[in-house]
Design a protein that fits this description.
heterodimer; A: 346 residues; mainly alpha; 13 helices; B: 307 residues; elongated
Amino acid sequence: MSRDYLARKLAQAALTIVAIAILNFLLFRLIPGDPVRSLLPRNVSTQQKQELRERLGLDQPLLPGLYQTPQGLRLKVEQIPDTLVENQFVTYLGNLASLELGRSFFERKAVLDVIADRFWPTVILVISAEALALLLGILIGIRAGWKRGGPFDILTINPALVLYAVPLFWLAMLLLFFLATPNGIPVFPSQQMTTPGRQFAGPLEAIPDVLAHLVLPAFSLALGLFAGYALIMRSSIIDVLGEDYITTARAKGLRENDVLRRHAIPNALLPTVTLVALTFGYVLGGAIGVEQVFSWPGMGTLIVRSVTQKDFPVLQGLFLLITISVVLANLVANLLYAVLDPRVRR
Amino acid sequence: MNLLSSWRRRAAGFWRLFRRSRQGLVGLGILSVFILVALVGPELVGRVDRAGTFDQMLDPSGGHIFGTDRAGRDLFKVWVHGTRISIAVGIIASLITMVIGAAVGIVSGFIGGRVDTALTALSNFFYVLPTLVLAIVLATILGPSLLNVIMVIAITSWPGTALIIRSQTLSIKERMFVDRARAYGAGNVRLMTRHVLPNVFGLILANTTLTIAAAIFLETTLSFLGVGDKNTFSWGRVLEESFAAGALTLGKWAWFVPPGLGVVLVVLAFTLVGGAFDEILDPRLRAREAGRAEEPPEAVAGAVVGT
């Protein structure tokens, strides 16, 4: 990978993250209504309101000279020099730099702590679903592409296409209905990450219980994801099979199995592997619905909760965290692609 | 040759190619049924009792083939009305997406230079952001209404269209006829609307069909997560209500299976039709799927875009 390529990709990612920080600021300033009023009970004095306003920095202008008034935005040109530093945007950037994301409206905790509690459950869910989906997708894609048009191809690719059109949360609902309620065969628990009320001596003791709770959410997510991997794997196997080096390998007298294992698969894996990083945002999106159905205590259910409770600081923190991680995943995909595929190294 | 007959000739050529795609025909078949339900269904089954009735939580029977909900509403009626809302939201949101995406893509690709750099950077930026998360945040900020959901879908979906149309515009710009028209004194606006637009129109059509699928998908998810319109019963809204009311544990499968199945079939149908359009427009893709080139690519492209 050339240094130019690396530098360009890093600069792009950095710029995108700056743009996300600005968008995040602007978006949450668009919210109609006075945040102070939603934070405090009705019967507090005007002075108390003013104090909170100052503490939150809401008495400052949005940008130098740009004030938010009940009548809308007002630009006071004469104030610009005085408010070059003392404005909400600079304060926001400063807070961001020190990872100060504010406090939750509803839990008496810092936003970062609220999110930290929900971080690992989502990571566990997403990683296990990705692993399952990749395994299924790659194996099915290889067989389907290798014998294109054959019975295996037709029997797997058509269902995969249909799965592509299934909302993940609905798939989760069906799995829950059939495998976790008495209406079907209740083999798995339906809610939460552990059995409610059960005490564990240590984290290790909890593993079997967590795994039992993980099966259905992970499968719901994986079933929605594997279709994409299978289709890409299939088409890249088909592409690779048309390449000259495959013909050469066959001409050398290699057995078909070796052609597939040594030449076709390694080259066809590349697009599928990078797809994992590229679809990271989609996976996190899918996880929201799945978590909601299974009450999985992750960031997805936290998003839904902060939406219904109008807990804007938490929503803002989650938006920042998720979008930035998606940008970083994209960066990884680009760099991975460059490392693995010599043709991209420019 | 007048414009109308040229369009008719083009449409006929398009249909000839479309007819060959089995997937496209299957999609078109499913779609016709659902469009028919959406167009005339709600009037045929009559209005849904907003206030509800006393026939609450009934199981499916002859009188109520999907049963009734907590408020005693007939779930079949609700489903039929949901068909119209979900499909309408998908189509309207995609039309807005198409207009924004096509405008940005054509201007960006045709004007080039700094305009292109700025617009492409903007498209890329919104393209990278995770759609659902951005949509949830926007919908929460704007407040729950059908119009807002439509706007949110358009705002989060246009970059894909813009980037595709831009790259197509770039290649059209280099063709002879554009230079010829410019030599005759055609200005940028005229060139873009009269020469570039007709040539990217096929692509816009294919892309919009695929966008409708994505839009219906997104609306369903947003409604299920509770940021949709609380007063209209789209399929997603029905799914949310059934879930919140415990339809899963109560065994009321007829509450949540039909709306989900509706989404799957309609999204699948739009994807199949859009995929068939794409194949017609991209002869390389078609040749690969068929395993051989059936017609020289130029002839096929000409039949569709009329160059």
